[in-house]
């Protein structure tokens, strides 16, 4: 996900429509039995009810059938698009499509005006939405614009993202891990100190002699919660800095797992990626997926979906 906005979910029936948009084509269904055109995507013809529809590429030229200008976003995610010209376009084939009219000044929008499609690339993955614009405009493909491109950077080279810039925030959730952090050694002394602090002095953590004989790991292992809190000693270089908020709160974890042990004496390091950005009445919630590994091990010892709340 690299967009906060709700995205269409293709179904088995509608998938050819969305795939065509990705390829900068508009395809709708035509009935092989009566030649009638059908939109939205269906299994059967709406004219003669035959189950014999075929996807056909069309130019997409049509006229503006109806529209409304929304000045208050229906969801905060759309606040960067105000006012939105929500439109119904009637294609030359007679079917109507709900869409958004773009790049036409408010005073120039008229019912019946000639329009043509714009293939709007809304994510770095090429997800495409169908907009329309005046036939006097260029139309065609609207390229994806990286919303982080023009933002300033701090001394560490991190891109500075204002908490109010929802479009840029959403681009942070690109599912890419940071580089590995610094490394730290989890030795028996550290494990003993944590056992004393937490009161969890189970022999699997604190008795190397017994662990050698009885533990499946043949040695003592660190407490999962110890490895989790050691995250504070790992400097994970995030490629961004969020700015312009009043408070930042550690809101807890959506998921905390200890999939692999950390034997005493291991060296650990960590990395993270932005899993999700969401907006609610509480503020902007950033979910950071933190992984801590024993150095060289593919399997994480800690997975922590850490939720940070900005307001
Ligand atoms: Zn038909």
Description:
This protein is mainly beta and 311 residues long. The protein folds into two domains: 15-142, no CATH class; 159-184 and 223-310, Thiol Ester Dehydrase, Chain A. Helix content is 14%, strand content 36%. It has helices spanning 15-22, 166-172, 188-198, 203-206, 208-214, 224-229; strands at residues 26-31, 37-38, 53-58, 62-70, 84-91, 96-101, 114-121, 128-134, 140-142, 159-162, 184-186, 240-243, 248-257, 266-280, 283-294, 302-310. The strands form four sheets. Strands 4-5-6-8-7 form a five-stranded mixed β-barrel. Strand 5 and strand 6 (96-101) form a beta hairpin. The longest helix is centred in the middle third of the chain and has 11 residues, at 188-198. It starts with 14 loop residues before the first helix and ends with a strand. The protein binds zinc ion.
């Amino acid at each position: 996900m690299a967009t906060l906005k709700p995205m269409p979910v293709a179904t088995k029936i509608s998938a050819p429509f969305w795939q065509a948009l990705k390829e900068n084509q508009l395809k709708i269904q035509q009935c092989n039995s009566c030649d009638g055109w059908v939109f939205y995507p269906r299994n059967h013809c709406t004219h003669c009810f035959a189950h014999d529809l075929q996807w056909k590429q069309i130019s997409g030229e049509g006229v503006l059938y109806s529209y409304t200008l929304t000045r208050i976003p229906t969801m905060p995610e759309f606040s960067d698009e105000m006012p939105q010209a929500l439109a119904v376009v009637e294609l030359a084939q007679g079917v109507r499509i709900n869409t958004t009219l773009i790049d036409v000044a408010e005073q120039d929008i008229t019912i019946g005006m000639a329009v043509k499609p714009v293939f709007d690339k809304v994510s770095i993955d090429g997800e495409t939405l169908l907009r329309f614009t005046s036939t006097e405009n260029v139309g065609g493909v609207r390229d994806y614009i990286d919303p982080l491109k023009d933002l300033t950077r701090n001394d560490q080279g991190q891109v500075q993202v204002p908490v109010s810039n929802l479009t840029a925030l959403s681009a942070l959730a690109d599912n890419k891990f940071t580089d590995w952090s610094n490394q730290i050694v989890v030795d028996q002394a550290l494990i003993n100190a944590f056992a004393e602090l937490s009161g969890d002095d189970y022999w699997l953590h604190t008795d190397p002699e017994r662990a050698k004989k009885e533990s499946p790991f043949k040695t003592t292992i660190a407490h999962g919660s110890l490895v989790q809190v050691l995250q504070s000693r790992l400097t994970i270089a995030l490629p961004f800095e969020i700015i312009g908020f009043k408070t930042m709160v550690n809101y807890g974890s959506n998921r905390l797992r200890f999939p692999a042990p950390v034997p005493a004496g291991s060296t650990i390091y960590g990395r993270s990626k932005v899993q999700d950005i969401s907006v609610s009445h509480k503020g902007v919630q950033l979910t950071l997926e933190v992984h801590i590994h024993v150095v060289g091990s593919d399997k994480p010892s800690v997975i922590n979906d850490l939720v940070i709340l900005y307001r």
